[in-house]
Amino acid sequence: MQQIQSVPVQIFDLAVRLFHWFQVVLLAGLWYSAEQEWYGLHQLLAYTLASLLGARLIWGLIGSETARFRHFVPAPRQLRQYLTNKTPVAGHNPVSALMILALFLLVALQFASGLMTTDEVMTEGPLYSLVPDWLSSLAGSWHELGFNLMLGLVVVHVLAALWHQLSGDKVIGAMWHGRKPLPADTIAPRLLNSVKYFLLVVILFCGLMGWQGSAVWPQFLADLQTIQAM
Ligand code: HEM
Ligand code: HEM
């Protein structure tokens, strides 16, 4: 039988990879800061994550080939084909793409609901007093429930990634260094320089700080003092 030769192909740019791992770290920080009731830090991390996600969604329209929604959001036919023949893909595979869309949505909802939430002590999201009571109370419930739902999906996501990695489709390696072993005749996807992505992140972050910085920084500095005094 003829052996198909594999070669490492660069499939993910720096923007996609750094977005992914920063997101993991920031979500852990968001959970921990809420547990400790450090809501200044919590909001600062949330605005940072929102900037990374907002820029990632724009990158999904103008970025590298494998980052674009057009490239990875599957049609039902592609999904069926993949399910009958699960070969490594030069980008996100169609099943993982569905999970990725769900995680994008849940993180965005988490951020939006946070803006309408209060801890009923010191911290109010900036939209809390602007929306009707039923909406802020729904947002408050969702802020807790949505996070737990997201954790459930993350467990499935990580188990699926480990399963692929161990069965020869090196997806975790690809999300880390960008390269995946693929058949030698694979056409490498077109990857762009990620500088524009990081510029977008900075622009969005400055916009959010222009909007909320004066409310967030004093709370964040108070949190820092609490942390230093521990
Ligand atoms: C809070 C935890 C996590 C969240 C919210 C999350 C979310 C995501 C998102 C949104 C993407 C798409 C990246 C993009 O195109 O921009 C992705 C891809 C990926 N993630 Fe995660 N992730 C998490 C943790 C992890 C961990 C711990 C691992 C590894 C053990 C992992 C492995 C992967 C892999 C391998 C891909 C690429 C999948 C593919 O090739 O289609 N993720 N993840
Ligand atoms: C993606 C971003 C966010 C994540 C992952 C996140 C996560 C969390 C988590 C896990 C909790 C604890 C929930 C509980 O057990 O009650 C929490 C509470 C809270 N978050 Fe966020 N959050 C985010 C964004 C925001 C934003 C943008 C704000 C406000 C501007 C905010 C304000 C709050 C407040 C006030 C609480 C306390 C709620 C209560 O005491 O019931 N969060 N957040």
From TrEMBL:
Domain Cytochrome b561 bacterial/Ni-hydrogenase: 12-178
Record bears the keyword DNA damage: no
Transmembrane portions of the chain: 12-32, 44-62, 95-116, 145-163, 197-217
Topological type in the membrane: Multi-pass membrane protein
Keywords (A to Z) from UniProt: Cell membrane, Membrane, Transmembrane, Transmembrane helix
Record carries keyword Transcription: no
Protein name in the entry: Cytochrome b/b6 domain-containing protein
